Amino acid sequence: MELRELAQSVVADHTAAVARVREALVPLRDAEVAERLGAMGVERLKEVTEGRLRVAALEDGGYRTVGSVWAATVGELQLVPGVGALTAGQALAAARQIGQAVERTVTVWLDVDEPDARTTALVVALHRLLAAGPGLRRTVEAAREIEARLAELLPAARPARGRLRMLVAGREGRARARAAVAAIEELTADAGRRGLPGEFRQASVDLLRDPPSDVEAWVDFELRSADYYSLLAELDARPPDAEAAQGYVPAEIGDRVRAEVLDDSLLKVSLRGYQSFGARFLLAQRRVLLGDEMGLGKTVQAIAALAHLAARGETHFLVVCPASVLINWTREIRARSALRPLAAHGPGRAEAFARWRTDGGVAVTTFDALRVAGEAVATAMLVVDEAHYVKNAGAQRTRAVAEWAAVAGRVAYLTGTPLENRVGEFRALVRQLRPEVLPRVDGRELVAGSQAFRRAVAPVYLRRNQEDVLTELPAVVRVDEWEEFGPQDAAAYREAVASGSFMAMRRAAYASPRSMKVRRIRELVAEAAESGAKVVIFSYFRSVLETVGKALGSERVTGLLSGSTTVSARQRLVDAFTAADGHAVLLSQIQAGGVGLNLQAASVVILCEPQIKPTMEHQAVARAHRMGQVRTVRVHRLLVADSVDQRMLETLAGKSALFDAYARRSEVARATPDALDVSEGELARRIVDEERARLSTGGPPPA
């Protein structure tokens, strides 16, 4: 029957696409294993054999590393004087045992700046699956379910194909056949109502589409590398560390969370395994604190929990967050789910809250706006981002959050700030969520170590670290931080647009030391200070860096690199920044610090504004993300919505990004990158004209 054929085709096409990914992965992993084994001295084989293996003869025969033994055969090893069949067999078995252990831990990196045939093959194979859209996994799962069900029903329904068959089937056989036919008809009708035949056809078309050019695949990888690495981890045959992915929660809690069935029908993204567990933890434990390290996707886990509840018929949800991340929340909700976000802050917050109370959706508001939002409304879920903001029980914002939490069906506090060593702050948050857990949080668990602490507070607290669950993540994690203009910034921006000054438009977000961008920079720097991370802050404009430097204070900033800084002074500043004990901040004009310097001491990079030339941003980030960097580099690019920042991204996207990728991979670009970037004058004129039209400011023509 047609439905079964469609389902079988989708499953077969998806299986073939997955096989191509795994085939492309094998040589990359083997090469990584060989490199690691090649760095191990052959004496390591003794550890596996508990000292019984004599390796001196192997070393004399030129086998000086585990890798050289691993790549050999028993016959080749026996050619070495003094190495018999027993020794050769033991040596090769020990080398393979070490190789298997290494293979379970190796990480495959996809270097966008130095692609080769093997990494390109993997990126192209992953692109085929990602291009089919976020709904592919659900479509394939539905196809498998239908195929399995029909495989069960069709044999039972076979007698119904003819009268004679029904006659010889007997009474029970005829009854089974009729029941099977009815079930098949209902299954087919249900599939039609859900639009599955059309989804199956489209999925097969997507999976069989000709692969893109290598450059197109790499460009897509650059734009959403996290999606590629997530899919790669999902398809990797190696099982993850289940305990680490589940935050070392006790078995009874883990069982309850895993039993929670997550409805992802309203999600537009696929969740990693640990993210799915986190979302189900929020649902199953009801009032909890999600403390995952930054970069693990606390936001998407919360959105997944909201989407689950919405799919089950709930209508009202509330997110409370600092003003600096409010736009990020509305954008993430819209991009990653079918939920409807409603920003409730600023002058129109009262009207927005009134509309939300009537129509429902996800209201996103700030701590300050919540205090004047009126009587608390019962919500299916309250999400509080940067929850350490409400650690002070006597603060007005804490009392306001507590009032809304009291009438919420579920409450999720989110914070990436480590709390294991802050018993007072942790107790304050636990008291708001689950006071019955407080007796477990008296400091004794901390003495036993962080894992013991997490088990003790598991009913209310879940934290995972990057090193535990994201071993395959790229060394660079990029985050776009969307802000809004403050009053002074908005006025400066309108004046700049009216005057036609493109550069003044780009600087306007820093017109005030209290601007939202400056505030967000202070938050990011404070967060980096918590973990002792060093930060480099880039801007095209020296005046912007001076504003940021004043806001941060001289005790944090080690110096400012500008175009007028001499070569020797530049190196002294970098050396001082590198030698600083723990946290430090270096300010740099992107033209001065973006090339020729090694800033691998920095693990946090902040870009104050988007750059006209994509190569400029790549070069700046490469100062920190280079050989010698041992930590994941977090890159935060600050943007203002509905401004020159957004227009620049829109204009530089698509064909311009593709052209830039081609250019950066050509020999000409390596010699003269500036000659191949988009025209600054053309870009400036276009953006100024667009912003004038949007703001209806008029004014003189742009210079």
Write the layout of secondary structure elements.
Elements: H1 2-38, H2 45-48, H3 56-60, H4 66-70, H5 74-78, H6 85-103, H7 117-131, H8 136-157, H9 163-193, H10 196-208, H11 214-223, H12 225-235, H13 242-245, H14 251-259, H15 273-285, E1 287-290, H16 298-311, E2 316-321, H17 326-336, E3 341-344, H18 349-359, E4 361-366, H19 367-371, E5 381-384, H20 396-406, E6 411-414, H21 423-433, H22 444-447, H23 450-456, E7 461-462, H24 466-469, E8 476-483, H25 487-499, H26 502-507, H27 516-530, E9 534-539, H28 542-552, E10 557-561, H29 567-579, E11 584-589, H30 590-593, E12 602-607, H31 614-624, E13 633-640, H32 644-652, H33 655-664, H34 667-671, H35 680-695
In short:
Helices cover 56% and strands 10% of the residues.
Strand content: 5-15%
Largest sheet: 7 strands, parallel
Mean pLDDT: 84
The radius of gyration is 29 Å
Span of the ends, CA to CA: 68 Å
Instruction: Count the DSSP helices.
Output: 35
Output the CATH class name of the largest domain: Alpha Beta
Class from helix and strand fractions: alpha/beta
Question: Tell me, what's the shape?
Answer: globular
Number of domains: 4
CATH topology of the largest domain: Rossmann fold
According to CATH, the homologous superfamily of the largest domain is: Tandem AAA-ATPase domain
Helicity, in percent?
55-70%
Low-pLDDT sequence parts: 655-678, 698-703
Biggest sheet: strand arrangement: 3-4-2-5-6-1-7
CATH architectural arrangement of the largest domain:
3-Layer(aba) Sandwich
